[in-house]
Amino acid sequence: MTSLKEFFKPFQRFSLHNINASALLFTAAILAMFLANSPWAYFYEDFLYRHVFFQIGDFNIFSHHGESMTVLAFVNDALMSLFFLLVGMEIKQEILIGELSSVRKAVFPIVAAFGGMIVPVLVFLIFCSTTPDIRGAAIPMATDIAFALSVLALLGNRVPLSLKIFLTALAVVDDIGGIIIIALFYSGHVAVIPLFLSIIVLAILYFAGKIRINSNAFYYIGGFIVWLLFLESGIHPTIAGVLVAFTIPARPIVQLEGFVDKLNQSLKALPLSEGERSPKATVLSNAQIHILRKIEATSDKAISPLQNMTDSLHPYVNYLILPLFAFVNAGVTFGSIKLDMLMGIPMGVFAGLFIGKTVGIFSFSYLFVKSGIGHYPLGMNTKNLFALSMLGGIGFTVSLFIANLSYSGVPEIGANLLNQAKLGVFAGSFISGVLGYFRLKQVLPPAEVKQ
């Protein structure tokens, strides 16, 4: 039987060959829109609402309150939990050693992110202030870091490192805000017993990290149990991924300094004699095999579970989960949208992303600097800050996710409202990305010509 590791190898190869994950995500979204408006729309809809079964005896793992998950629910509630696990681990790294590791480093992107969350909501409310439209007020809060950084990458070495760091830190704070919003406003009636049990499992994972249990499998299994309990508790299950991420140890068992010394000693015993090698074969002694295996085992222990799991999850999330998420969520049906609807949710989301994000990030950052409390990082100025603020309006992934949470449960008209929100997400993200790119291209210094 083929192992899971063998099955997922293609996604790791995609990652190694630097295939653009954002382009794959965008392609999946375009394909979904094409299918949703094509003669094959019925097959697309049928695929989304097929039931997913994974039986252990009489128990279907992917079920909720006795009903099997559909493909759409499986992607949004199960697979996206891995995306939020990855987001949580990246947030933890930023807090420990990154741009959020000290008040001095963190304050500027935090201020900018607050502007980028508050103003978009206010702009959305200008267009959508009545029930049930108002449920989507959090949709334009998000920044899709993968897309935003992909736009910066198009400009190559013309982009100062400080701009990339600022945008990354800003998006991380945005993610924290989005996670809090999902936890507070998009969870159902809370069942106390499953929630209590999940807290116990999280505590076990946390203390396991403290006593240096560094097995990746241990945290994946524990995380899966927490996810199951969250699913039954009524709290949105993707929050489980974030909470589990913060229990994963960031310190390796073997410190790198001592590891290098041990590695050098082991390598001295490895050279083969002339009789042990030929053009046709290499024959290792039992001692040499033991040394190589010991090096391999020690090398694994020199990488913390946090970094190891982050690195392992990246290709699966970027090249499988997110494109699949885009494919099942991006199917906007244009035929159901009338002109008189455009000034409601579509305009609210579009304006929230394009205008709200730009004005919010730029104004809060600019006023913070002008107040004398903060200062621009090296390479940043007012002009490129404004262009960068536009790129903050690329919401896409998390915006689509929150849109689904906002409207999918609204009786009778939820599908139509969600369809309108998706249109706003696409329009706002696309315009923010294009105009942000051209504005940044205009204000950045020309690329250095290599002699």
Detailed description of the structure:
It is a single chain. This protein starts with a helix and ends in an 8-residue tail after the last helix. Strand 1 and strand 2 form a beta hairpin. Helix 4 runs antiparallel to helix 13, helix 9 (216-233) packs antiparallel against helix 10 (238-245) and helix 11 runs antiparallel to helix 12 (286-301). The protein is globular, with a radius of gyration of 24 Å. The protein has 2 domains: 19-252 and 303-443, Up-down Bundle (Na+/H+ antiporter like fold), CATH 1.20.1530; 253-268 and 283-302, no CATH class. The chain is 67% helix and 2% strand. It is built from 17 helices and 4 strands. With 451 residues, the protein is an all-alpha fold. The strands form 2 sheets. The chain has a two-stranded antiparallel ribbon with strand order 1-2. A two-stranded antiparallel ribbon has the order 3-4. The chain has helices at residues 4-16, 21-36, 41-48, 71-97, 103-127, 145-153, 161-185, 192-210, 216-233, 238-245, 256-268, 286-301, 305-329, 345-370, 382-391, 396-407, 414-443, and strands at 55-56, 59-60, 63-64, 67-68.
**Physical arrangement of strands within the biggest beta sheet:** 1-2
User: What's the overall geometry?
Assistant: globular
Q: Uncertain regions: pLDDT < 50 for 5+ in a row?
A: 10-18
Top-tier CATH class of the largest domain? Mainly Alpha
Amount of beta strand: under 5%
For the termini, the CA-CA separation is 55 Å
Count of individual helical segments: 17
Please tell me the CATH architecture of the largest domain by its name.
Answer: Up-down Bundle
Q: Tell how many strands the DSSP assignment holds.
A: 4
CATH superfamily of the largest domain: Na+/H+ antiporter like domain
